[in-house]
Amino acid sequence: SGTNEIHFGTAGVESKMVIDSSGNVGIGTASPTSILELKEASIVPRITLLKTGILTWFIGNPSQGTSNNFTIGTDSGSNTEILTLSNAGNVGIGTDSPTHLLTLEETDTNSVQLVIDNNNTSDAGTETSTIRFRHYRSYVAGLNDAGEITVGKEEAWDASGDRNSYMSFATRLGTNGVQERMRIDSSGNVDLTSGG
Predict the structure, then answer these.
(1) Entry pTM
(2) Cα separation of 33 and 17, whole Å?
(3) Would residue 130 be called left, alpha or beta, if left means φ above 0 and alpha means ψ between -120 and 50 degrees?
């Protein structure tokens, strides 16, 4: 063993775990380079979380290490990857092969949905949920708002049948910032005047 190191081993194996002089812990490696380093060459390099009677979860690399993805998933006899981060930086939910920054996939009879919840319980009738788009501006380096899609309430939803909403679309005109250009109200009417 090295100087000022603590090694833990099993029969016939000199070291299975080491705490080095810097306080780094290595499991499967005698030379950890971070606070905790796990290394395994022959089996799945992952951490498994299991509670009796509850589905097993894993964090790490699936498929016996044949992919270079980082995954959070379940294991009920075979790997089921719930969330995958590829080595290209793409994130996949429901897919182990994300092709874009965020890829959502659903294989059963349900539709693929991205749900945005506004759980403001004041119910003032002014609550909104917005998807905002931004682009890089080189004149003054940095990201600037470019447009947005907003869904909002037309009224407080505090009585039977009061659940009217609208969808609006906004774009940017120079220094005027992002302004609403079109609104579809709860009756399906389209308003092309600024402000809805």
Answers:
(1) 0.71
(2) 14
(3) beta
